[in-house]
Amino acid sequence: MKKIAPQRCRIAGNKPLDRAGRYFRLTIEGFHSPRKIDPGQFVHVKTGDGYDPYFRRAFSIAGFDASSGRMELIHKVVGRGTNLLARKAKGETLDLIGPLGNRFILPGKSVTTIIVAGGVGLPPLAFLARRLVDKGYDPEQVFFFYGSRSRDDLIDMARIRRLRVRFIPCTDDGSYGRKGFVTQAVNDHLARLDGNRLFIYGCGPEPMLAALQNLALDKRLKGELSLEAPMPCGVGVCLGCVKPSLADPGRYVRVCYDGPVFKIGEVQL
Amino acid sequence: MKPSLQIEIAGITFKNPVMVASGTFGYGEEFESLIDLDALGGIVTKSITLKERAGHPPPRTCETAAGMLNAIGLANVGVERFIDEKLPFLRKLDTRILVNVAGSSVSEYVEVCRRLDKAGGFDLIELNISCPNVDEGGLEFGTDPAAVIGVLRAVRGVCRRPIVAKLSPNVTSIVAIARAAQEGGAAAVSLINTLVGMAIDSESWTPRLSNITGGLSGPAIKPVAVAMVYKVARAVDLPIIGIGGIATWADAVEFHLAGAIGLQVGTANFVDPDTTMSIIEGLTRYLSTRKLASLHDLIGKVRVNHGRSQ
């Protein structure tokens, strides 16, 4: 089987997605994937040359077209690595490894899916929503909740709307969409839906995922959560990105290798 | 003619000197989809203890300038599961297998080595007498010459395979510890393990690791490691496996010149999983262009009088 080796790809674009210039869509081209790429997987990206910063940064794949090798990543400037990434320009190259990690499973076509994105947890779920629609899932049965602190932190909404899924934006401060936490909006909607035919997907800040997991466990709903953690290696060997297991108390799971996608109830949040 | 990268340690031949360091390569299987494992000189496993260890709570790692701190806490599956679940994969590979063993008492080291020796399917033991991240044992053994001699003799009594003692840099004199390893019957020494370090978050005023302190690794520690290899090579008549920040073929050359026969690549595996492959290629090219027939034309040949002929 072909090895997953680092490769250098040309940057086709790196455009800000908000007025403040904190969120970017980075598009690369010519990515030769040794494996099929599915929503949930990530790539490990070198943000600079040399030894400082030393480690790669992990980014969920936000979109991939196998025929052209065009891959999209969405990143937010949070530290030194992402700051360097934000400065990369079209025509430069990017050193990346992937695809790494596991993928979301897709439920049966008659199941209603509840997608819950918080903040920068959007990219893998945007990819997932598109995959569901492409695979022929009824967009009317795909609920896409997207919550952020305020209007300025909701990005790329036009793309989600174009999928014709049931889109429910929320902001903590009420500056756009529903006011309040996204998990509250989910909770309110769940009351109206048949719990036996639901599947939940979540990605976002850990407190949001914890609330979502509690909600799902409480209502006995199935689903999957995509987690984030600083990852020195990204391939399961350094044991640096672990989270305590909920299903197997006393043990830890590796976010990069056992995940980043975990079943609801698998990880202690 | 293609130069030879072959080396020999404790009567065992390695196809090349480039191994992967304990704790940076899992149990080997995780890297199967990333590189050709058979191209490696050797694989050193994660530290194996008697009982399974879950390890420390997160955060366990923290990026630092040109390196990282880690305090994993010797998380591993324990010797029985290692033998049943991990060793079968490793023994099929066409590379040398070094099983790294850690313990909190002499009797634990002895018991793990006894069970491994009985199971077979590997080539050498690397005795971790230098882990800085566990409350008990590890570093304690590695900082006291009498304890080093004691644990090595005890382990040699139950294990037919050669023992490599992995030395700590967190000592006043690494040469004294290397001499003790020789006296205890080590077939070779590997050095260095990580340096004790700490990082504090300036916002929250809390340590960045749950264990408070951790082990520093990566390119940041390379000069320390080269100096220690150089000192030990001049003082002790044992094969040396050099470890510490090796990321390029030029780093490898540096360690060979300082006196290392074998090499272990550690933290660099995290950044570029194919680092070992580039180093093997680079070393071959280096010897070719300089018309050197083998690595032995390089090992310990540092010119200490700044290039003047000796």
The CATH fourth-level homologous superfamily of the largest domain in chain A = Nucleotide-binding domain of ferredoxin-NADP reductase (FNR) module
Nearest-integer average pLDDT of chain A: 96
- CATH homology group of chain B: Aldolase class I
CATH class category of the largest domain in chain A: Alpha Beta
The average pLDDT value of chain B, as a whole number, equals: 95
Low-confidence segments of chain A, ≥5 residues, pLDDT <50?
A: none
Task: Output the CATH topology of chain B.
Answer: TIM Barrel
What is the number of beta strands of chain B? 14
Strand order, sheet with most strands of chain B: 3-4-7-8-9-10-13-14
Based on CA atoms alone, the radius of gyration of chain A comes out at 18 Å
Q: Give the count of structural domains of chain A.
A: 2
How would a crystallographer describe the biggest sheet of chain A? 7 strands, antiparallel
Report the radius of gyration of chain B as a whole number of Å: 18 Å
Give the CATH class of chain B.
Answer: Alpha Beta
